[in-house]
Specification:
The chain contains 14 helices and 23 strands. It is α+β, with helices and mostly antiparallel strands. The strands form six sheets. A four-stranded mixed beta sheet has the order 1-13-15-14, with helices on one face. Bound molecules: uridine-diphosphate-2(N-acetylglucosaminyl) butyric acid. One of its GO terms (cellular component) is cytoplasm.
C-alpha cells in the first residue's frame, strides 16, 4: 500500500468473530437445525465449520446473505480433528457443550494467535467443579462425565472470556444451579447468553459478572443474529483518526466501544453516534493518549496494536499498558521497522512522536497485529508491504476491499498487501 490517504466514506460492520465461533459451538447443545445470521466471511468461521463437520454436523453457509445453518446430529462425535482444532483457539469452546450434552469431549490443545501462553486452567478447574473428569492424554484434553454434570459455584481467578463461555455451555444442561462468579462481561458473552436463552436455557445476570444458570433437561435449536464486531468497528474508527479522515461505521455499536470512543475523543476526534452506527472524523494531528487494556468494559486488548499504531503518529508521549496477554508487544518490533519511536518494558510500551512513519516490509504475527500494521502503512511515507496477511483473514472480512472503498491506495498480492 502507499501511505497518505484520508479514509472517508462508509463501512459496514459484520457479525463478531469472537461471538459467532461460540454460537457455532453452542449449536452442539441441541439436535436439529440452528440458523445463524450476520456470519462474517472470515477464515476462522470456515475452520470452525470444518470442526463441526468432523463432529457429524452438516454445515451450510450462504456467503451472499451471511447466513449459516448447522444441522446437529442426535449423537455428535466426541473427538474433533486435532489439526483443525490447533488452527483456532476458539475450538476449545466445543469442550463445554460436548461434555455437557454427550458426556465426553476430546479437544487437542488448541492453537490460535501467538500472543501469549494462554493457559486453560480455568476451563479445566471449572469443568471439574461441575463433576467432569478432565485429563490430558497425548496432547489431547479429554473431559468425561458418567452422567449429567452437576451444577456448582465457580469463582474464576480472572474474568476469562473462553472459560466463562465454556462453563456457561456446560452449565445449561447440568443438574441444578451453576453460578459463575467473576465472569467475563464482553458483549460477545451476552450474545451467547441470549442465544442459549433462545435455545431454552435459563440464565440470570446476563451482561454482569455473576451468571446464574439453572440447568434444563434439553435444549432446542434456535435462530440468532450475531452481534456486530466491536473490534472490527474499533479498527476502522482508529484508522479514521490516524488518517485524519471521516468514516461512518454502519452497524457499529458505540455502546460496546465506550472507553475506546472516549479515548479517540480525547485524542481530538469527533464522534457522532446515531443513524444505525457512529461517525468518526478528525481534522488535526491526534493528541497522545494513555491506554490500559483490561477485560470488558476496559480498553480491549484486541485493539492494542491499532492504538499503538495511532500513538506512533500522535503528538506527545504516550504510555500503553497491556494486562491481558503476555506477548502482544511482538507487534512493536514490526512497527519499529516503519520508523515508530517506541520502547517496551515488561507489559508497558512508551510511544514517542515520530516525525513521519516510512514505508517498509513488515510481517503480521497475529490478526490484530496485522490490522495495526496495515493502519500504520496507510499513514507511512511511500510503500509498505505487509506479509503473512492470512492472519488478517482470520478476523477481517474484505479488509483490503473496504479500505480501498474508503480511499486507501492498497491492493492484495498472493501473500502480501502491497503496491
Ligand atoms: N487464561 C488463563 N487460564 C485460563 C484461561 C485464560 O490463564 O484458563 C489467561 C490467558 O492466558 C490470557 C487471559 O487469561 O492471558 C485472557 O484469556 P481469555 O480466556 O479471556 O481469552 P480467550 O478466550 O483465549 C478471547 C478472544 C481473544 C481476546 C480475549 C480477551 C476468542 C476466540 N478469542 O480469547 O481474541 O483477545 O478473549 O478479550 O474469543 C482476537 O480476536 O484477536 C483474540 C485474540
Amino acid at each position: 500500500m502507499t501511505g497518505g490517504c484520508q479514509l472517508a466514506g462508509e463501512v459496514l460492520i459484520p457479525g463478531a468473530k469472537n461471538s459467532v465461533l461460540k454460537l457455532m459451538a453452542a449449536s452442539l447443545l441441541a439436535p436439529g437445525v440452528t440458523t445463524l445470521s450476520a456470519v462474517p466471511e472470515i477464515l476462522d468461521v470456515d475452520v470452525m465449520a470444518d470442526v463441526l463437520t468432523t463432529l457429524g454436523a452438516t454445515v451450510h453457509r450462504d456467503v451472499a446473505t451471511g447466513t449459516m445453518t448447522i444441522d446437529t446430529p442426535v449423537t455428535p462425535g466426541a473427538a474433533a480433528d486435532p489439526d483443525l482444532v490447533r488452527r483456532i483457539r476458539a475450538s476449545v469452546a466445543i469442550l463445554g457443550p460436548l461434555v455437557g450434552r454427550c458426556g465426553e469431549a476430546r479437544v487437542a490443545l488448541p492453537g490460535g494467535d501467538a500472543i501469549g501462553s494462554r493457559a486453560l486452567d480455568m476451563h479445566v478447574n471449572g469443568l471439574r467443579r461441575l463433576g467432569a473428569v478432565v485429563d490430558i492424554e497425548d496432547g489431547v484434553l479429554v473431559a468425561r462425565s458418567s452422567g449429567r454434570l452437576q451444577g456448582a459455584a465457580i469463582w474464576l481467578d480472572f474474568p476469562s472470556v473462553g472459560a466463562t463461555e465454556n462453563l456457561l455451555m456446560a452449565g445449561v444442561l447440568a443438574k441444578g444451579t451453576t453460578v459463575v462468579d467473576n465472569a467475563a462481561r464482553e458483549p460477545e458473552i451476552a450474545d451467547l447468553c441470549q442465544f442459549l436463552t433462545e435455545m431454552g436455557a435459563r440464565i440470570e445476570g446476563i451482561g454482569g459478572s455473576t451468571l446464574v444458570i439453572e440447568g434444563v433437561d434439553e435444549l432446542r435449536p434456535a435462530t440468532h443474529e450475531t452481534v456486530p464486531d466491536r473490534i472490527v468497528a474499533g479498527t476502522y474508527a482508529i484508522g479514521a483518526v490516524m488518517t485524519r479522515g471521516d468514516v461512518f461505521i454502519r452497524n457499529g455499536r458505540a455502546e460496546h466501544l465506550g472507553i475506546v470512543l472516549e479515548k479517540l475523543s480525547a485524542a481530538g476526534a469527533i464522534v457522532d453516534v446515531g443513524g444505525d452506527g457512529f461517525r468518526v472524523s478528525m481534522d488535526d494531528r491526534p493528541r497522545s493518549i494513555d491506554v490500559v487494556t483490561l477485560p470488558y468494559p476496559g480498553f480491549p486488548t484486541d485493539l492494542l496494536p491499532q492504538i499503538i499504531a495511532l500513538e506512533a503518529v500522535s503528538q506527545g508521549v504516550s504510555l500503553i499498558t497491556e494486562n491481558v496477554f503476555d506477548s502482544r508487544f511482538v507487534f512493536c518490533r514490526e512497527l519499529l521497522r516503519l520508523g515508530a519511536q517506541l520502547r517496551t518494558d515488561g507489559h508497558h510500551v512508551v510511544v514517542r512522536p515520530a516525525t513521519q512513519l516510512v514505508g517498509a516490509s513488515v510481517s503480521a504475527s497475529d490478526v490484530r497485529a496485522g490490522a495495526g500494521l496495515v493502519l500504520a502503512g496507510l499513514v507511512a511515507d511511500g510503500i509498505t508491504e505487509v506479509h503473512e496477511v492470512h492472519h488478517i483473514d482470520r478476523g477481517y472480512a474484505g479488509f483490503v476491499e473496504n479500505l480501498r472503498a474508503l480511499g486507501a491506495d492498497i491492493r492484495r498480492e498472493r501473500d502480501a498487501v502491497a503496491a
